[in-house]
Structures are given as structure tokens and as C-alpha cells.
Amino acid sequence: LHFCLLLGISLAALLGNGLIITTVTCGQHLHTPMSFFLLNLALTDLGSICTTVPKAMHNSLWGTRHISYTGCAAQVFLLIFFMGAEYFLLTVMWYDCYVSICKPLHNGTLLGSRACAHMAAAAWATGFLYAVM
């Protein structure tokens, strides 16, 4: 029962995030800063799901609760990495909303494609640094 529940929930999340990624990538009118950050947020969500759910499904299917030390360390590292990147991406998305609402005339200069790429890369790098620490 738990295996089927985990499978259904994870497949729904994978399908939803996959649709977001496909839509933002293929839609020419969706090449905006918010859509770019939403794409990165969907990638962090996919990473978080793919980090924890497979082992939980394995344990549920076989009725065990065992995990190796290296497997646990890898799960903790990846989960902290994806969660850290997600938190910083949410912060960058908040900044995008702030600029769009409070400084609409400066939106193009403050949130150009290069600046968005730098902010997203900084969010991913910060997540990695959090995971290493």
C-alpha cells in the first residue's frame, strides 16, 4: 500500500515538474525571468524527489528500514543541496517580483538574461556550499 502511494505521488510530481520544464523550454513567450526561475525551481524539486523517494519506495516494497552509511550521506548531501538551492531560488524569485512591481521601468536593466543566469548560478552554488558545510 505504501509503495503504491509513494509511486503515485512521485509520478504526479515528476509529471507536473516535467510539464513545467517542457512548457517553459518550448514556449517562446515564456522566456521571462520568472519563467526561468520557475524552471530552476522545478529542477530542484525534481532533484529532491529523485533523492529521497526511490529509497523510501525500496524500503516500503521490501519491508526494510536499512540504509548504508554512504547511501545516507549521499541522500543528506543531495537533499541539503537541492533544498538550499530551492530556498535561494525562492529569494531570487521574490526579488524578481519586487523589481517588477516596485521598479517596472528598471526591470529590463536589473533583470536581464545575463543577470538572471548569474543569480540562478549563485543560488545553485550556494546550495552546493551549504551541502558541503
Structure description:
With 133 residues, the chain is mainly α. The chain has a single domain (2-132), classed as Rhodopsin 7-helix transmembrane proteins (Rhopdopsin 7-helix transmembrane proteins). It is built from 5 helices and no strands. The protein is elongated and about 60 Å long. 17% of the residues are buried. The chain crosses the membrane at residues 36-54, 66-90, 110-132. It is found in: Cell membrane.
Distance between the termini: 37 Å
**Helix-strand category:** mainly alpha
Kindly report the name of the CATH homologous superfamily: Rhodopsin 7-helix transmembrane proteins
Mean pLDDT: 92
Q: What amount of the residues lies in strands?
A: under 5%
Strand and helix order: HHHHH
CATH topology: Rhopdopsin 7-helix transmembrane proteins
The total beta strand count reads 0
CATH architecture group name: Up-down Bundle
Overall tally of domains? 1
Alpha plus pi helix count: 5
General form: elongated
Radius of gyration: 18 Å
Query: For this structure, what is the CATH class?
Result: Mainly Alpha
Oligomeric assembly: single chain
Q: Sheet bearing the most strands, described?
A: none
Membrane topology: Multi-pass membrane protein
GO cellular component, one term: plasma membrane
Protein name: O14I1 protein
Signal peptide: 1-18
